């Protein structure tokens, strides 16, 4: 394991999904050493008791390493699926008629059960139905309360329980299923840091999760439905972060529309000060190969140049043959992009105008002061993490050292661009704040003797949301002796 005081200089975060290839204590430690800043637990697979063991392993490694570890639990959401076939897979031919109905009898080459009554109520003629991740395309001809008559536009094999996507309408299904509620209660009970909500279509979809979570964790909305793009800002107002989930988004949108959607989501999140994760198929070939394709490397680099807070590995780290190598490659790509002299200017293509608050004004000023006086780092005191999020939004060119008395806040900041969080006791006076900032900057190697640092805090200390202090100090190098 790396030493507790070694700060990761890379600013973009790496989120690694854990699974059969990586859910041992040894592998989790190796992934953290290779560059993983946060870990995703996918509730679509596995049992709660197995996930509990993995979460405990992460917490054990966290204590040993001295580095707060971020855990994101990804809820399965309302996955729509067709029923079963009577005699195995069938082949649907382009141009043929095909029926989806509510009859639970196993299907054949002419029909299959669709056990989701809400779809029948939402659909209209001419809507598309996508089966098996979009490999088959049906066009609705006629709709009744218990039957959909369709024409096959793109044929192919259809087998049991294949997924169904409905890209052209908002399907009034709850964003939280009974399984999701159970998984959410389980995860919150174990003190996880982020909850990812799947298949968000509209602002109302996040309200129940927001109410159930309260302040126990941060909430991230996965943008994977075209309908979510129509009310993107309204959704972001209600959540703490977003994910560009390009898997289902790429099924329901034309492939050529996905890059534009990705850039729009990232830009909107940047502007609104929400952490944004770019996910799905980033290094897909590394599931089986020890190196990625050049196109995949360019894809990851583009997300980083656009200013994403984090890039995510899915099957590459969860079920692939090369999980450590995949994380290492993410780390190498990010480090290379951030060393590009043009990276900083690319980051600021997106204008992030501050809100008319004291905290936002101070955050913007801190980023400007760093450039003007060539300061080495920003040291930010926070209890809730809100000050850190404001500063990160400005994408400063120097390390952002976050000092917080709340371990939960330190853990949640693992998805935040540039943030290196340190959990330590709170300060009680201005003088103590200055001395601690100088000492921590040296200890965590974000600044050295002779450097200047910019300090941000709120007075009175320990009051969330009270950022009102901006102070510049010089380091002598003697501070560690105190």
Give a structural overview:
By secondary structure, the protein is α/β, with parallel strands linked by helices. It folds into three domains: 13-78 and 175-340, Phosphoenolpyruvate-binding domains (TIM Barrel), CATH 3.20.20; 90-165, PK beta-barrel domain-like (M1 Pyruvate Kinase, Domain 3), CATH 2.40.33; 358-481, Pyruvate Kinase, Chain: A, domain 1 (3-Layer(aba) Sandwich). Helices cover 35% and strands 22% of the residues. The protein contains 17 helices and 21 strands. It has an eight-stranded parallel beta barrel, surrounded by seven helices. Helix 1 links the parallel strand 1 and strand 2 (38-42). Helix 1 (25-34) packs parallel to helix 12, helix 7 (232-238) crosses helix 9 (258-272) and helix 10 (294-305) packs across helix 12 (323-338).
Descriptors:
482 residues; alpha/beta; TIM Barrel; M1 Pyruvate Kinase, Domain 3; Pyruvate Kinase, Chain: A, domain 1; 3 domains; 8-stranded parallel beta barrel; 6-stranded mixed β-sheet; 35% helix; 22% strand; elongated; disordered N terminus
What is this entry, summarized?
It is built from 17 helices and 21 strands. The chain is α/β, with parallel strands linked by helices and 482 residues long.
Q: Radius of gyration, rounded?
A: 24 Å
So, CATH architecture of the largest domain? Alpha-Beta Barrel
Termini distance?
28 Å
Level-1 CATH class name of the largest domain: Alpha Beta
| Helix fraction by DSSP (H/I, runs of at least 4) | 25-40%
- The main sheet orders its strands as 1-2-3-12-13-14-15-16
Kindly estimate the percentage of residues that lie in beta strands according to DSSP. Answer: 15-25%
- Major sheet attributes: 8 strands, parallel, barrel
Uncertain residue ranges: 1-5
Could you give the count of β-strands? 21
* CATH superfamily heading of the largest domain: Phosphoenolpyruvate-binding domains
- Summed up, the domain count is 3
Work out the helix count.
17
**Secondary structure category:** alpha/beta
CATH topology of the largest domain: TIM Barrel
Q: How confident is the prediction overall: mean pLDDT?
A: 93
What overall geometry do the principal axes of the alpha carbons give? Answer: elongated
């Amino acid at each position: 394991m790396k030493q507790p005081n070694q700060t990761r200089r890379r600013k973009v975060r790496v989120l690694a999904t854990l699974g059969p290839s990586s859910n041992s204590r040894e592998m989790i430690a190796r992934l953290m050493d290779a560059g993983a800043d946060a870990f995703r637990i996918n509730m679509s697979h596995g049992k709660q008791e197995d996930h509990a063991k993995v979460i405990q392993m992460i917490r054990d490694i966290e204590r040993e390493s001295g580095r707060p570890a971020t855990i994101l639990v990804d809820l399965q959401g309302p996955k729509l699926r067709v029923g079963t076939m009577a005699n195995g897979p069938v082949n649907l031919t382009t141009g043929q008629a095909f029926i989806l109905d509510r009859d639970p009898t196993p299907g054949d080459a002419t029909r299959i059960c669709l056990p989701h009554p809400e779809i029948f109520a939402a659909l209209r003629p001419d809507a598309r139905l996508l089966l098996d991740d979009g490999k088959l395309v049906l066009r609705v001809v006629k709709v009744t309360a218990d039957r959909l008559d369709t024409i096959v536009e793109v044929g192919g094999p259809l087998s049991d329980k294949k997924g169904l996507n409905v890209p052209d309408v908002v399907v009034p299904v709850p964003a939280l299923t009974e399984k999701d509620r159970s998984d959410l209660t389980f995860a919150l009970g174990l003190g996880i840091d982020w909850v990812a909500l799947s298949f968000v279509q509209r602002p109302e979809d996040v309200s129940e999760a927001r109410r159930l979570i309260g302040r126990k964790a941060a909430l991230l909305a996965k943008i994977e439905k075209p309908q979510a793009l129509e009310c993107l800002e309204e959704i972001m107002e209600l959540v703490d972060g977003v994910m560009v989930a390009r898997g289902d988004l790429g099924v329901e949108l034309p492939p050529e529309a996905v890059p534009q959607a990705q850039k729009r989501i990232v830009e909107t999140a940047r502007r609104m000060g929400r952490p944004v994760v770019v996910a799905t198929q980033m290094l897909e070939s590394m599931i089986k190969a020890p190196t990625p394709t050049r196109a995949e490397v360019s894809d990851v680099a583009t997300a980083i140049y656009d200013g994403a807070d984090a890039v995510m590995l899915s099957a590459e780290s969860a079920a692939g043959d090369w999980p450590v190598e995949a994380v290492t490659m993410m780390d190498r790509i990010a480090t290379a992009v951030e060393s590009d002299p043009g990276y900083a200017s690319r980051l600021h293509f997106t204008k992030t105008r501050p809100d008319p608050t004291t905290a936002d004004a101070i955050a913007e000023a801190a980023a400007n002061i760093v450039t003007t006086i060539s300061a080495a780092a920003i040291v930010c005191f926070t209890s809730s993490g809100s000050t850190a999020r404001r500063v990160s939004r400005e994408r400063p060119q120097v390390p952002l050292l976050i000092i917080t008395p709340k371990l939960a806040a330190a853990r949640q900041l693992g998805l935040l661009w540039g943030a290196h969080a340190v959990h330590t006791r709170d300060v009680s006076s201005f003088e103590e704040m200055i001395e601690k900032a100088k000492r921590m900057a040296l200890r965590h190697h974000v600044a050295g003797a002779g450097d200047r640092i910019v300090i941000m805090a709120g007075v009175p200390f320990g009051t969330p949301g009270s950022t009102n202090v901006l102070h510049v100090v010089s380091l002598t190098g003697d501070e560690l002796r105190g």
